């Protein structure tokens, strides 16, 4: 058990039978009435974000999340196969479990699997990945005074706004948290 007064960003907790990670929290002490903690929590099972308010000093269950290194192997229809790097056990996750992550996954890529008491909740990607541009319009010379950007499609199907000097077959560094261009690799 953990007190809500000890909340930290990234802490995983169990509330009402669901597993949440703390995205944001604020201790509030109004002039009249009891103190409370206002928090923003992300459900690790379905990805929904909720706002919850707890009384100051209230205790809730702490969820111990396990992270293991795995390798993404291949896609087969709606299923995506992974292999544990230590035990070589293979398992699959559905396309619904990997909505955002599929924008960045390439075959043979190493990621971390997130599980709670044997239940696989999803995967954690590295903060940035290298992806090859497969389609983009040519840049127009003299159009750079305002830091103009253009659309580029990378090998995983993700569309990213990039500077005009980026061409097809360039390898880019893409931020996996926001899906934005960082630099050329």
From TrEMBL:
Domain Elongation factor P C-terminal, which positions? Answer: 129-184
Give, as in the UniProt entry, the pathway in which the protein acts: Protein biosynthesis; polypeptide chain elongation
GO terms for biological process, alphabetical: peptide biosynthetic process
Is Protein biosynthesis set as a keyword in this record?
A: yes
Q: Which CDD domains match?
A: S1_EF-P_repeat_1, S1_EF-P_repeat_2
Query: Which keywords does UniProt give here?
Result: Cytoplasm, Elongation factor, Protein biosynthesis
User: What's one GO-annotated cellular component?
Assistant: cytosol
What Pfam families does the annotation carry? Answer: EFP, EFP_N, Elong-fact-P_C
GO MF entries: translation elongation factor activity
Its localization reads: Cytoplasm
| Translation elongation factor P/YeiP central domain residues | 67-121
Per the entry, what this protein does is:
Involved in peptide bond synthesis. Stimulates efficient translation and peptide-bond synthesis on native or reconstituted 70S ribosomes in vitro. Probably functions indirectly by altering the affinity of the ribosome for aminoacyl-tRNA, thus increasing their reactivity as acceptors for peptidyl transferase.
PANTHER family in the cross-refs: ELONGATION FACTOR P, ELONGATION FACTOR P (EF-P) FAMILY PROTEIN
**Family per record:** Belongs to the elongation factor P family.
Name of the protein in question: Elongation factor P
**Species in which this protein is naturally found:** Fontibacillus solani
